[in-house]
Amino acid sequence: MTKIYSSAEAALEGLLFDGMTICSGGFGLCGIPERLIDAIVASGVKDLTVASNNAGIDGEGLGKLLRSRQIRKMISSYVGENKEFERQYLAGELEVEFSPQGTLAERMRAGGAGIPGFYTKTGVGTLVEEGKETKMFDGETYVLERGIRTDLSIIKGWKADESGNLVFRKTARNFNHPAATAGRICVAEVEEIVPVGSIDPDHIHLPGIYVKRLVLGAPYDKKIEFRTVRQREAA
Questions:
Q1: In this predicted model, what pLDDT tens digit does every residue of 93-150 receive, in sequence order?
Q2: How far apart are the first and last CA of the chain?
Q3: What are the residue ranges in the chain where pLDDT is below 70?
């Protein structure tokens, strides 16, 4: 049975429903599942809870789902480049659960490993601790964080074989691997699909057992989240 689908819309067919939870890989505009996000926008599914490091920027990445008001709640670490995210949050239109970046990655990894919760020192004595159980270990306080388990994971990879064994490229590896394992079903979009056996087993970052559906997303335009340039020297 093939895992390869002809389009992002086909790869998501039968998986989307109102009120569902989604774990999305990548951060900023790096390594994000662009084609799958566009397909979710087009589907009109609403009241989504999305776990992702951030929500892209205005009009790009998950920012598209914010603009269309399809997201009800975000579980995120960083929101600094998305003005619509900020506006909806401050206006009480969007529920936000802030999670420190490393904690968020571990919550996804833990969920994928079947670990319902873990204790960490990160966030102790801050707003992050409020409403959560704490416990003393060796005389120090730790806060209990819940693992994240979602209905669906959407991720972006660089290269995959036909069985779904997947390679991430450089920084795009951040969050895509833990996000992939956190979902009950993982759908991946990639830049290239090669025959089974073409990828050295030692180079595989995500085993195909985690990837249920696969779509070729290329070609992509490389977008820059925040462009900075060196100031010209005076003549």
A1: 999 999 999 999 999 999 999 999 999 999 999 999 999 999 999 999 999 999 999 9
A2: 65
A3: none
User: Do residues 157 and 190 lie in contact, with contact meaning Cβ atoms separated by under 8 Å?
Assistant: yes
Pairing type for strands 117-120 and 140-146 reads antiparallel
For residue 61 the two structure tokens come to 């990445």
Give the bridge partners for 186, in sequence order.
Answer: 153
For the chain, what is the HEC assignment?
CCCEECCHHHHHCCCCCCCCEEEECCECCECCCHHHHHHHHHHCCCCEEEECCCCCECCECCHHHHHCCCEEEEEECCCCCCHHHHHHHHCCCCEEEECCHHHHHHHHHHHHCCCCEEEECCCCCCHHHCCCCEEEECCEEEEEEECCCECEEEEEEEEEECCCCEECCHHHHCCHHHHHHHECCEEEEEEEEECCCCCCHHHCCECHHHCCEEEECCCCCCCCCCCCCCCCCCC
Measured CA to CA, the distance from residue 111 to residue 188 in angstroms comes to: 18
As a whole number of angstroms, the distance between CA 3 and CA 111 comes to 24
> Could you give the maximum distance between any two Cα atoms of the chain, in Å?
65
Domains, the chain, ranges and CATH? 4-118+148-216 (3.40.1080.10)
